Amino acid sequence: MQQISDSIQLKLKTLPEKPGVYQYFDKDGTIIYVGKAKNLKKRVTSYFSKNHEQAKTYLLVKRIVDILYIVVDTETDALLLENNLIKKYQPKYNIQLKDDKTYPWICIKNEAFPRVFSTRLLVKDGSRYFGPYASGRVMHTLLDLFRELFPLRTCSLDLAANKIEQGNYKVCLEYHIGKCLGPCEKKQSIQDYNLYIAEIEGILKGNIASVIQDLKKRMFAFAENFEFEAAQDIKTRIELLERYQAKSTIVSPTIHQVDVVTMVEDNDTVFVNYLVVNSGAIIHGITVEVKRKLDETQNDILTFVLPELRERFQSTAKEILVENPLDWEMEDLRFFAPQRGDKKALIDLSLRNAKFYRLEKMKQEKIKDPERHTNRILETMMKDLRLKELPQHIECFDNSNIQGTNPVSACVVFKDAKPSKKDYRHFNVQTVEGPDDFATMREAVYRRYRRLLEEEQPLPQLIIIDGGKGQLGAALESLEKLNLRGKIAIIGIAKRLEELFYPGDSLPLYLDKRSETLKVIQHLRNEAHRFGITHHRNRRSKSALSNELEAIPGIGEKTVQDLIKAFKSVKRVKEQSEENLAAIVGKAKAKIIIEFLQKD
User: Is 288 within 8 Å of 305 (Cβ atoms)?
Assistant: First the structure.
């Protein structure tokens, strides 16, 4: 544990057991970390009262020279204050929300006869912004819908009342083709125009059903007053809206207004998917990246990201759906982790989006920066398998025999998580009689690493044994003989349940079936199996050929080898003339072979 200064120790003793926000300062007086706590004393003291496995946390604590805190009334207040302070000071050790691009918004301009358009620039001039839209296609679909539904102006004229009164404006082509009702020449009142804007706002907020209901009331009112042309115009707009609504991602009419948040982890990066559901339909969806700085939990990340996303999307939902129960309370919000039904389906949908986004990022990374992609996989393996160094060089062993015949062992080599086929090796077992998998593994491992040591070749960082505890134990015996035990990490993989066994640990490790680490291990295991089976099959074929020819009286093993080498198969030996055979094995043996084959 690190040395704690007297001033820090004094502060730790006097911290209140209240909710609040704490700030850590370095020797230059710079805020390096901001955190929230239900109990300030317990949370802050925990940083200084235990050993930190993660180097980043260790370095943070080492740099702290002063602590300030702010006590608040509720956990929600602590959450919001933390969020504001992080935005303001951007502390070095706080997690960050990463956007790799600026998403577009739909803007309703703060002006007389407001324009509605897309923008990536948010200007604080009183205009209203809706979004952001992760999919430009969705945004443009909405804008196209508005142009069909509402005759809005597209010009940038200043349509203040006094400017219109001066009579300097003339209607343009948009008016003549019915796309604008000519407010520049007082042909449309601002009250009528603002009705369109109110309907657009309702649609953008996801309240399509209520907008349709209001339109129907107006349609019936026009019809009762025999204004059939106006009623027909509204009916057309209702049909367009219903058609758009049918294309929306409908979840369930019973789910009125909820937010959905799920997370997928990839080392220090967490992909957070956020969905906004209103009136039974998903109206917004986005996946963002969060970079871990310390050992933040999913709770820490969620409580950091959620207020930011809710503010960005102007969500007013009171219920938040999460994958796992959240150990944090927020005023007027209910967190719910559904286990079944439509809400569970929403969680699954959100998780799928987060995973697809992660997969897309991985593919892009692999194309743009293959070295970084490889390092990320190796770092994942090191973390998952609890290794002390990156497994840049991995070797995997597998045995192959059928009823004890021609036992062989295969060793495949992966470098930087990819096969290095020129380094593959097979071992024809020399010291084992019968089908003894353990003895075969013992011999192969011993021969492999004895040779590497003799030739002063680099050793792998990881050895994988295809088999359970028995095969792993046999391999360990060989490493012990070579004084390599403990110097190379070694694990066994059992096929049935993909269990990973470690030396001296009776309990296996189970990796997520979709994890990259398990996929690399499976690839190694499959390659070793394929390579071993291929070599074993070749040996059995040659053995079968040899046995058939060796059955000829007077023909020995050396003669058979010469024949197979020359003609490749028994069939081709049988097709040869006596002269051709004599050229390889001599006249006497050629005559014996021909007479035997003719008799056969």
Answer: yes
pLDDT digits (tens, 9 = 90+) for 553-585: 777 767 877 777 777 666 777 778 888 888 888
Element (H or E) spanning 514, and its range? none
How many domains in the chain? 5
Query: Quick check: 477 and 509 in contact, CB under 8 A?
Result: no
Q: Is the pLDDT of residue 465 over 70?
A: yes
Same domain, yes or no: 399 and 525: yes
Q: For 70, list phi and psi in degrees, rounded to 5.
A: -125, 120
- Is 196 inside a domain boundary? yes
User: Is there a single domain that holds both residue 332 and residue 274?
Assistant: yes
Report d(CA 472, CA 499) in Å as an integer.
12
Question: Do residues 119 and 146 share a domain?
Answer: yes
Of the candidates 184, 218, 250, which is a domain's last residue? 250
Whole-angstrom distance, CA of residue 437 vs CA of residue 431: 12
Q: Tokens in use for 353?
A: 């989006």
The answer to whether the CB of 264 falls within 8 A of the CB of 271 is yes
Long-range CB contact pairs, 47-52, < 8 A, 24+? 48/1, 48/2, 48/4, 48/8, 48/12, 49/1, 50/1, 51/1, 52/295
511 plus 393 within the same structural domain: yes
Give Cβ neighbours of residue 314 (< 8 Å, ≥ 6 apart).
130, 205
Q: What is the CATH number of the domain that holds 571?
A: 1.10.150
How much of the chain, in percent, has pLDDT values that exceed 90?
9
Q: Rounded distance, CA 387 to CA 385, Å?
A: 6
- pLDDT of 199-233, one tens digit each? 888 877 766 777 777 778 888 888 888 888 878 87
Give me the long-range contacts of 5-11 (CB less than 8 A, separation at least 24).
5/65, 7/65, 7/66, 8/48, 8/64, 8/65, 8/66, 8/67, 11/67
User: Residue 465: which CATH number?
Assistant: 3.30.420.340
Q: What tokens does 218 get? A: 């107006």
Do 449 and 400 lie in one domain? The reply is yes
Average pLDDT of the segment spanning 237-257: 64
Please calculate the CA angle 493-499-503 and round it to the nearest 5 degrees. 65
User: How, if at all, do strands 269-278 and 281-291 pair?
Assistant: antiparallel
Pairing of strands 393-402, 281-291: unpaired
Report pTM.
0.51
Give the mean pLDDT of the chain: 81
* Structural domain boundaries, residue 593: 551-599
Token reading at 469: 């505890």
218, 211, 188: which is closest to 113 by C-alpha? 188
Please tell me whether residues 394 and 510 are part of one structural domain.
yes
Instruction: For tokens 């209240």, name the residue.
Output: 18
